[in-house]
Amino acid sequence: xxxxxxxxxxxxxxxxxxxxxxxxxxxxxxxxxxxxxxxxxxxxxxxxxxxxxxxxxxxxxxxxxxxxxxxxxxxxxxxxxxxxxxxxxxxxxxxxxxxxxxxxxxxxxxxxxxxxxxxxxxxxxxxxxxxxxxxxxxxxxxxxxxxxxxxxxxxxxxxxxxxxxxxxxxxxxxxxxxxxxxxxxxxxxxxxxxxxxxxxxxxxxxxxxxxxxxxxxxxxxxxxxxxxxxxxxxxxxxxxxxxxxxxxxxxxxxxxxxxxxxxxxxxxxxxxxxxxxxxxxxxxxxxxxxxxxxxxxxxxxxxxxxxxxxxxxxxxxxxxxxxxxxxxxxxxxxxxxxxxxxxxxxxxxxxxxxxxxxxxxxxxxxx
Length: 367
Prior knowledge:
alpha/beta, 8-stranded mixed β-sheet, 3-stranded parallel β-sheet, 13 helices
């Protein structure tokens, strides 16, 4: 069993560390506490649409898995908050009023949603935190190893610099301060970067919005000078796109190494042509499907299966010993596109290798 305190930095971990060896565990009503049958309603609350993964991958994959686990008798009640914490609270209240059987929640604001989580608990509706650890009486949590994500990004950035020295100036573009994941990415990255480069400017980017990252980057360029920025740590791909726009607007043609996360299609294409150094590929099918399994097992009282899916433990600022599953991550570069996003059917080669990127695809033999 592994235990992580989400509010503090964890120790360095290898990329393959995660409790995924138990994902094929099964449970049945014969060895579980009483629960419901297949005719269940699962509430799914996702945080925003600026990051394309939620609408394109998480929701449809989750929905399909719930249907397959319930002989197509189970349904998913879905809502996206579009980065509005108040809107998400209203959406969650509606699900509570509708008496859904379980809620899977990816919080816009992990602290602000705590009261809604308590209301669900009071109504007898379990809440599983998805991707971001919400505060309040959460029943379980599934996400990627967020400290490790930051470490992988930072290691890749240092690798891109080659003989990096403490005088090399970098800009850190972190995620939203309201997102506990952003704090974990930042902590993981800093554990690798401190003492090895100079962090000339660091920003916590409001709402993770690319346009806010672009504005921050423009400010950093004015303060530091475009020619003195040797690399940019970007916590995700959407912000990396805004950073690229700011650099190009400043007349930079030879872009410094830029990190990312989420393997957005635009980011994969930027990586191919050298406008972004890397991204972090997180297997959305694994996360979404395993979250669906956890939700269905919880509602149906399949305790053995639920316990097998949540063998790790995490602490939030309000709740200790939350059953959890942490999914491993992979550094995505131009050399392993085929082995990651293509192999997992996230994108077809034809999606990536449009006419504009045909030559770059040919150069890495992506066909």
